[in-house]
Amino acid sequence: MNKVIIYSPDRSPKLIYVLDYVWTRCLGFEFVLTDDKAFFLRAEEDIKLNYSADYIAGVMAIPYSVYFSDFDIKLIPHIEKNLHWDEKGVASFDFLASMFFLLARVEEYGEVERDEHSRYVSDQSVLVKLGLLAYPVIDGWLQALRSQLNQRYKLRLNTPTYTCLSTVDVDHLSAYKNKPVLIQLGGLARDLLTGRLAKVKDRFSKMDPYDRLRDMIDWNTEVDLELLFFVLTTKRSKYDKSLAPTHPLFVDTIKNLSQNGELGIHPSYASWNDTPKIKAEKSTLEKILDQPIHRSRQHFLRLSFPTTYKQLIDAGITEDHSMGYPDRLGFRAGTSRPFQWYDLDSDEVTPLTVVPFMIMDVTLNEYLKLDAGSAVKHCKQLIENTKAVGGQTSIIWHNSSFYAEEGWLYWEESYRRILQLAVS
User: Fold this and answer.
1) Which residues on adjacent β-strands are paired with residue 30?
2) pTM of the predicted model as reported, rounded to 2 decimal places
């Protein structure tokens, strides 16, 4: 294993977290952090890094910005799309501070603007303001660091292998079938009054328009992708429209899905800051499947720092897949790769792994108002940006997102094309 010795007067938990992320988790190095300059200078390690205000000739250096020693959640570190190294081996900006700011989601703490679902408004994001949301900038900075190490120390550090993660949010098992009688009658009356005769016809069709899970399994199998399903497991409410978890169709369908991929919980709308509710829903799904559940994705992507992630940890969740915006494509935390969540409140790294996503069907159609063909073009660019840095393309789709009468005409072809682009 390669080893690097790092000189810095700062030994804060925040700095150690980001050094561990960079050197251990991403580069596979062993690192030693010291604030003893004399020890650093006489150390025999070939690879040395200076992260201080002192100039040390012949040593790679990262500009020291005192971001960690004088940490303030209102302070925004310098962020650029590309990281460069000069002929002396000095980085163009303090990317360690920038990485921490993005990974720890510092900008989402404190008094921030929220939408009608209490979600952080993406317009406030530094990456959005800089026009960098479509780029996994952290992955790019790591690639630049690898290149510098290869050039300076004649190493052979390779770009990570590109991967793809295909996921499905199961919010509704059916549009019409098996819904409570009063719900069906109310919907039928509404469709008749508004002249939506095609939907009236679909209500009496043998096949329900949302019954597309088998198709999705087959399409992903065709491109050699395994699926990860997140299942809404709760009673019906204003924002939770799935069948009750006691319904025979729900039980049978979920058991069948477990034979075709991994499953996680899709906590209900009201559970985002309610640990007992998350635990109860998780327990219900575990009893149906007779297996533990440790993955989660927030329904409506309701995410509030630090409360939501603390609740998930308390509920026994070790992997969350909510890191993305509902209204924008791209990289909310600046990376396409999983990372450990750092809790600013307790000032420590947690056992929760955050798995970002960058593409979601609802974002493409309902928020960005793209047609099926334009959506593919937008996704292609994101996928290419991810492949360029050996990242991970993560896609969210819903089994309800193929129903033409609800605005999803031709989206079957788009979904299949996006999968093909993601794995090609």
Assistant:
1) 3
2) 0.95
H/E element holding 363?
none
Closest to 144 (Cα-Cα) out of 69, 106, 206, 91:
91
pLDDT at 187: 62
Q: In CATH, what class is 163-174+210-423?
A: alpha beta
pLDDT of residue 298: 97
| Helical segments of 116-208, H only | 126-129, 137-153, 181-193, 197-203
Q: Are 321 and 394 in contact, with CB atoms under 8 Å apart?
A: yes
List 264's β-bridge partners, or say none: 230
Amino acid at 291: Q
E strands, 53-128, where? 60-61
Q: Output DSSP code: residue 158.
A: P
Rg of the chain on CA atoms, in Å: 24
Q: How far apart are CA 28 and CA 49, in angstroms?
A: 16
At 12, which helix (H) or strand (E)? none
Q: Which residues contact residue 13 at a Cβ distance below 8 angstroms, ignoring those fewer than 6 apart?
A: 347, 348, 349
Q: Where in the chain is the domain with CATH 3.20.20.370?
A: 163-174+210-423
Question: Would strands 348-356 and 261-265 be described as parallel, antiparallel, or unpaired?
Answer: unpaired
Rounded to the nearest 5 percent, the helix, strand and coil shares of the chain are 40, 15, 45
Alpha helices, DSSP H only, in 49-161? 95-103, 126-129, 137-153
Determine the Cα angle at 318 with ends 388 and 320, to 5°.
Answer: 50
The 8-class DSSP code of residue 119 comes to P
Q: Are 378 and 50 in contact (CB under 8 A)?
A: no
Residues of the chain with pLDDT under 50: none
Dihedral of alpha carbons 109, 110, 113, 119, sign = positive
> What pLDDT is stored for residue 199 in this prediction?
73
> Count of alpha carbons within 13 Å of 396, Cβ hemisphere only?
32
Torsion-angle region of 387 (φ positive above 0: left; ψ -120 to 50: alpha; else: beta): alpha
pLDDT at 183: 67
